[in-house]
Amino acid sequence: MTSPGTRADEEAEDLDVEEALALVNENPGPPHGDHDHAAPPTHAEHPHNQGQYGSHGYRDHHGHQDGHGGQDGHGPHDRHGAPHGPSDPHHRATPWPEARATAEHAARTAARAAHRAPVSVPLDAALGLSLATPLTALTDLPSFDTSAMDGWAVAGPGPWTVRDKSVLAGHAEPAPLTDGEAVRIATGARIPPGATVVLRTEHGRADDKGRLQATRGVVHGQDIRPCGQECRSGDQLLPVGTLATPAVLGLAAAAGYDTLTTVPRPRVDVLVLGDELLTEGLPHDGLIRDVLGPMLPPWLRALGAEIRSVRRIGDDAKVLHRAITTSVADLIVTTGGTAAGPVDHVHPVLRRIGAELLVDGVEVRPGHPMLLARLKADRHLVGLPGNPLAAVSGLLTLAEPLLRTLAARPAPERYALPLRDAVQGHPYDTRLVPVVLRGDGAVPLRYHGPAMLRGIAAADALAVVPPGGARPGQEAELLDLPWAAGGIGVCFT
Predict the structure, then answer these.
(1) CATH class for domain 126-140+231-263?
(2) CB-facing half-sphere around the CA of 371: CA atoms within 13 A
(3) In DSSP terms, which residues pair with 297 in a beta bridge?
(4) Residue 93, CB half-sphere, CA atoms under 13 Å: how many?
(5) pLDDT per residue over 353-374, tens digit each?
(6) 3-state class (DSSP) for residue 292
(7) Strand (E) positions, 223-336?
């Protein structure tokens, strides 16, 4: 058949991705956290972000300090060791809820600037994409009266004389029945004209004259699926912004589609920084395995991205500059190099190319030295810390809301569960702690240091722990992990 990727009316043909994004986010809930930020301020507008680029005094995987003076919960210090708090004018980190809202706001702005056209993709390539146009039925469902069961199609009251030839699915319309006649019929086969009931196989028997008798009462129309029972041609089945799950693909096929018009995946380049990273074998001689190179691409795909490239470029400012300025991706994700050490080149390169820092450090543990920069109106860079769990924190804080919005995916429903155990907090920063879900509670896991993946590998979610910590039984907001949510994210395609 001709690929029916068209919609019921011509106006839907002109619906662009910007409109799809607006519809998907028509009634957005409040950003994660305790405060609403209807229009998050830009870097220049935010009081924490006044002034020039600056150091944060954190360690990334190059060995620079990864916290306000040390590991999580050890108290804030500046890079010279002097303690400071939120009122310190040099402490420009963005509150965690606001950082997420800023990333989403940046994506909306980028989508408007990019004017990305919807793409028509075959059903087998549409998994995980969002619909850019409504899914409108191209046919009645079912398109003809069908049998819901194996048995006999019968006409009028019994007993019935049974024809020799059976009616099977996929065959032409059968001959009509007259009262007192029956014919064997298979599930899904067309109902013969004149049939009033489908009598299930287990509900009929032959009498001593070879006629069909019902063993229980029958009701007119039983076990017949009438034409149009599920929908009529032209009915809207799903709205713009619906995520193409396996069930959606099945419904689209049933409704007559060969292709779907979808919001294109945001394109991502991943730049893995660090001279000390090995791609195989055991750590040795001060070298360590690159864990972010294997971990980030499938995680980003689960967030809706198309990975254009993954490059390992070491600690080379010139190569980093060339990689950033020649990329045509919607988003560049870098790993490490976001602090202020001798080989931390991300800030200097961004300053050199005139990028606008929207987020320069976030009040969250681990992952404080993450950043979000606008390279052009429709292009951004997320700088992740080099420590593995800190990088995960950056993914969920900045990359997830940005990619979700660019892909026109609906925001996940916010939910909270009580923590089974107390969680030590930081005086000023939010903490993200791996947890497993057990019944109606969340159990915090050990091994949640910035450089550790053992906890997150076993986790179902990350608990959002407010400054000051959480006591046993206190409810905490949870961020599901793609593979644990049981949804489309488990398909890393």
Answers:
(1) alpha beta
(2) 33
(3) none
(4) 30
(5) 999 999 999 999 999 999 999 9
(6) helix
(7) 224-225, 236-238, 259-263, 267-272, 277-278, 288-289, 306-312, 331-335
Percent of the chain at pLDDT exceeding 90: 61
Cα–Cα dist 365/88, whole Å: 19
Superfamily of domain 416-490: MoeA, C-terminal, domain IV (2.40.340.10)
Average pLDDT, the chain: 82
Token pair recorded at residue 211: 């006629």
pLDDT at 20: 54
Backbone phi, psi, residue 417, to 5°: -140, 155
Residues 6+ apart with CB under 8 A from 230: 141, 142
Cis preceding-peptide flag for 76 (omega within 30 of 0): no
> What's the pTM?
0.76
Which SS3 state, helix, strand or coil, does residue 100 take? helix
Chain segment 36-78, per-residue pLDDT in tens: 333 334 433 333 333 333 333 333 333 333 433 333 333 333 3
How far is residue 115 from each of residues 18, 329, 409, measured CA to CA in Å?
7, 15, 17
Looking at the domain that runs over 10-117+264-406, which CATH code has it been given? 3.40.980.10
Q: Please, how many CA atoms are within 13 Å of residue 334, restricted to the half-sphere of its CB?
A: 34
Tokens standing for residue 40: 């998050």
Q: What is the CATH number of domain 146-225?
A: 2.170.190.11
State the Cα–Cα distance between residues 425 and 72, nearest whole angstrom.
8
Helix, strand and coil content of the chain, in percent to the nearest 5, comes to: 20, 25, 55
What phi and psi, each to the nearest 5 degrees, are found at residue 441?
Answer: -140, 170
Return the pLDDT at 478. 96
| Contact yes or no for 136/240 (Cβ under 8 A) | no
- Candidates 111, 153, 108, 120; CA nearest to 4 is 120
Q: What's residue 491's pLDDT? A: 52
Q: Return all residues near 92 (Cβ < 8 A) that are at least 6 apart.
A: 48, 49, 50, 51, 54, 360, 361
Among 373, 372, 370, smallest CA distance to 352 is for: 373
Angle (CA) 337-359-395 rounded to 5° is 65
